[in-house]
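# nightly structure sweep
# worker-07 picked up a monomer target from the shared queue
# config: single-sequence mode, recycle default, output format = structure tokens
# input follows
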Amino acid sequence: MDEHAIRTMLEGGGGPAGSALRALLYLPGKAYGLAMQGRRFAYRRGWLESGTAGVPVISIGNLTAGGSGKTPMTLLLVSLLAQMGRTPGILLRGYRQSEAGGSDEATLYTTLAPGVVVAVDPDRCAGAERAVAAGADVLLMDDGFQHLRLHRNLDIVLVDATAPWGGGNTIPGGLLREPKSTLRHAGMVVVTRSNQISETDLERLVRDIRAVIGDAAPLLRAVHAPARLYSLDGERLPLTALAGRPVVVLSGIARPEAFEKTLAELGANIVQRHALPDHRDIPPETLRAALDEAERAGAVVVTTEKDRAKAVFSEPEEGTTDKNKWKSTDAGRLWIVGVDQRVEDEALLRQTVAALL
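# output follows
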């Protein structure tokens, strides 16, 4: 059973098999949630100590396992901080690094935010020390809400509107990393993909969040907005080039269905899809299969910028003959869609961040 099928079951789907799995894992999930609450309480009471970085630290995190838009939100903050004259650094854990030892997220950040300090280390305190030594005067901790060993000045917590509560239980009984009540410790909550549910459902979700956090923390709405389209050989394309275009979707992200919905909204005609586990390398044979399917259908292969950062898309060796590898002549048929995070009230986000500096 693949990772995406298990996610569907834990979030409440999967029919009778999903119900059976959730029932089996219900108590382990509740036990894990209690343990996480106890851990956070120990840090708040000072029984477990948090280190300091010597510069402001902003955490961008979430409550659920999987993608809620942390990377585009971090890139938005990099841009805002640069406009404020600051030198931001990004702290990454390096989750599920590739077989080659690289990190798709680190590569993506260095590509889209050239010159920004990126420190990859599971020890966030050690990463912070290196980033500050390299010149960073404010730190952005990607996926940092549960990493309490480093003190932060602001916790920005993202809630994915399309799957906000991970089935209602904590891991392994659901997809919550911590109980929903933990959201009250956020300094700001941002509802992402807010345009992918109905206004009625969005208003209901906002009320649900407010019931947990009260009125103290700002609550913003954001959307994943397609911003760039280009081929692997570097040709820039208008987003309208996807309208009516048959495409084979290739992705290794937590929520491939959200990416596919974005493509559909751009008018793409999805003829085949390959959804792999989040952060995993895309096998060369899978890429080759997607290219062959696209050729037969008169289509192009479309992937995400995070997947573009994976080693499998690096330049092939000159004269490649391996039938499973892509060739330089394939580059024009590999298209990449870049997505930005756009916040409804960016002025409030800017004001909140500026108050820390």
